[in-house]
Amino acid sequence: MLDIRFVRENPEIVKENIKKKFQDEKLPLVDRVIALDEEKRETQKRADELRANRNKLSKEIGNLMAQGKKEEGMALREKVKAQADELEELSKKETELTAEVTKIMMTIPNIIDDSVPIGKDDSENVEVQRYGEPVVPDYEIPYHTDIMETFDGIDLDAAGRVAGNGFYYLMGDIARLHSAVLAYARDFMINRGFTYCVPPFMIRSAVVDGVMSFAEMDAMMYKIEGEDLYLIGTSEHSMIGKFIDTITPEEKLPMTLTSYSPCFRKEKGAHGIEERGVYRIHQFEKQEMIVVCKPEDSPIWFDKLWQNTVDLFRTLDIPVRTLECCSGDLADLKVKSVDVEAWSPRQQKYFEVGSCSNLSDAQARRLRIRIKGEEGNYLAHTLNNTVVAPPRMLIAFLENNLQADGTVIIPEALRPYMGGTEKLIPKK
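User: That's the sequence. What structure does it adopt?
Assistant: Structure tokens below.
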């Protein structure tokens, strides 16, 4: 969320940013919120004047009564009462205007970084760099659920009977591989200096409003009926929420955390054939990383975060590439984002396995996450990135490590988490 003062002083910059994000329907909101803010400030000014005048008149009434001037005192009391009625109306109006200004401000997108490519949607994202040589073997790579079934590793039918579409049972070696990848990712990030955390898996609406846009919330979040709680779509939500209403001394920054959680998502809409199986699902697990830092440090941390994901995938022999997200593909709170995509030998193309985002002070403004500096308090910057998110990551893992005889090689880095197993042998 932008600072209203910035919007007042730079309306054309805000409008140009909206155009870059191809959200022209929001252009009238800029002038409207400026007008509402002006009305709110005038209302506040008049209310403050009445409060000051009330205090002054109250003292005068006390003096008149002490002097025996009862009639004059009673006349002033009537004046105070009339002003009290006006003040009550002004206070009500002030509350309504504040709510309306906040509502609009939460829909105006953050100012994107100058380096962000301009484009309407994800089809115009820009490849930055490739890591590792993508290989297409001379034998067939089956669909990922077919690979898993050769190990008796997945049961979608039972999951459908129990929970419906978008859920799964992972079994045996595949379930163990799933857990091993998460444990490896946890230790990988701990070794890079991040503090491990297991957060709450539900958050209150105030935190939801603080960490994401309304459009994201509607498309993603599951509401707990009858309670002010939502299931998290990613642990970033509760991890950033951890700092709500806090003031952190500069010397304690940056705060670098890596968190494990299950994730729950509605995943609205129909999806293509390649998004069946365990690619796009309602429940999955993820290792995440988040950073809370000083504003001047966030560009540096942004590059460190996506590099962590690239490095992890390369230790597992999976070719990846980084993709700069264009303006139209950025969620409203983000100023810059890079996707990490893994190579799919079966599809002979890359697909998304993680996303790194710099949100500048947008979440911090909503959640009042501040830093205590020598010259006063100021807003922090927040960043997040996926370390690894199986079972989607398992698709890339299985495809890239599948051998012609149906076995799956376990890279050396992962073997300690698989009890020393060097390869998985199919059961059928």
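Residues 120 and 328 are 4 Å apart (CA to CA).
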